């Protein structure tokens, strides 16, 4: 049956068919200019007495008749036809605010049994709302046995049209913001006629918390045009919205406005400024803002400590912690876990032990985040025994604890220990994640456990349904290549579900160099130089391969390309802490006072490793 409907958004809810009465109403369409919905038990002679039939069409009925499309046939027992036609009438009544006809349709739906459909109930509720009949809309809502999100939204809109003030509006905006319903929050905000500062702040915070900085700034500009001046909550929310890299300049502009209005001394505003500068690796300005703070709380200290650690200023973190203790601010678990992580990244065993002692003194040794940080820090400092003790001290290790221990063993080349720890994790009903599998695969790579590595890769993809990332593929390629399965690694590389990235191709090229497969190495190098044309190490690796085969023309060609496309190469750097002193070593630099002894020892170690058949990268 051909039906021309006014709107196609009404959805037939199949799972509610069982609630309809056995006999569906018959939809009668007279060829006359009037329309009617008649239940099945009506006789055709009673048709003239039906409430919707009028011998003289009123203006409202004429409008309704003109707007509601009528099916081609004059009778119907088909539920879809009855349902869609009812939707069309309700939508027309709502759009044109035709109240009298709405009440007639409402009564007919109730009599015919169609009113048990929730979608039709919601449309009746919405139509009363559009007709400005809030009391009838509230009655309809209260009578609903089942309510869904649409029902509640319409009811809230009814309430908004009645007695919404700033207090209720702010609460609703905040509620919608926390649920991620930004459009609903903006609707509530727009319905409040007289907005106070709290209302503006909540709307700005809504956009900020839902990662919509441009809209947050637009609300701020609108607020200023309305003559409303912001407070510390306004500016802290605005600054928090500038974390994204493309919003940094706007954050600096907000900072200048904060200085003009003297909000820079507020703790929340200053902390937000420290966070944005640290996120954009501007530790100098972050420290400048921190130093000007009159009052500092633990959140301010934590923000600076975390920021310095993330920017690689690990050596300064311990000094910041000491200053925090001098000002008698008690550290929490976030303070200590961030400090310990920074000490670990700096491979500073002395300061890691100091932070560990402070953890015990503060009574925070049972914190799982602190325990995980200690485990990782001791591992990075080379003391695997201390890392294992920290792992054992955690009362209920989570997946991060197990993964950190697996990675610690893998980092130290203890593949058997890493595999055993992984199996223990599975036996404790801890579900591994992609990082757990990356750790155990790395352990297999360093020890050449091909069968075990392939088993774990299949376990990850088949049993746990974890989609491999480029790091997992790189591990398998490296594992196969190191053990001499070059062609298997090549086929695996070609069968990957994603395009291979630089680390995967680099691992394959390294294996080709060891096993003298220059043709395959050239194939991978061409792809690698297309992906990372400005990375100098890619040219260096391939030119070294050509040099081994005395293909000097190719070496010269790659060197010229590297000079054209790449900036100056950053020399490698390493450091070691001995006796509370950190010694730095740069490639091709012999300025260290004990450089001769260091290089002599290195040469002796390399000679011994070659004699033992150890592969030197």
Question: Layout of helices and strands, plus pairs?
Answer:
Elements: E1 27-28, H1 59-67, E2 75-76, H2 79-96, H3 99-112, H4 118-130, H5 134-143, H6 149-163, H7 166-178, H8 182-191, H9 197-209, H10 213-225, H11 232-240, H12 248-260, H13 267-279, H14 283-291, H15 298-310, H16 314-326, H17 333-345, H18 349-362, H19 368-380, H20 384-393, H21 399-411, H22 415-427, H23 434-447, H24 450-463, H25 470-482, H26 486-494, H27 502-514, H28 518-531, H29 536-548, H30 552-565, E3 573-578, E4 581-586, H31 595-611
Antiparallel strand pairs: 1-2, 3-4
Can you describe this structure?
The protein is an all-alpha fold and 617 residues long. Among the domains are: 14-161, no CATH class; 468-570, Serine Threonine Protein Phosphatase 5, Tetratricopeptide repeat, CATH 1.25.40; 573-611, no CATH class. The protein is 64% helix and 3% strand. The strands form two sheets. It has a two-stranded antiparallel sheet with strand order 1-2. A two-stranded antiparallel sheet has the order 3-4. Helix 4 (118-130) runs parallel beside helix 6 (149-163), helix 26 (486-494) runs antiparallel to helix 27 and helix 29 packs antiparallel against helix 30 (552-565). It starts with 26 loop residues before the first strand and ends in a 6-residue tail after the last helix.
Task: Provide a concise account of the structure shown.
It contains 31 helices and four strands.
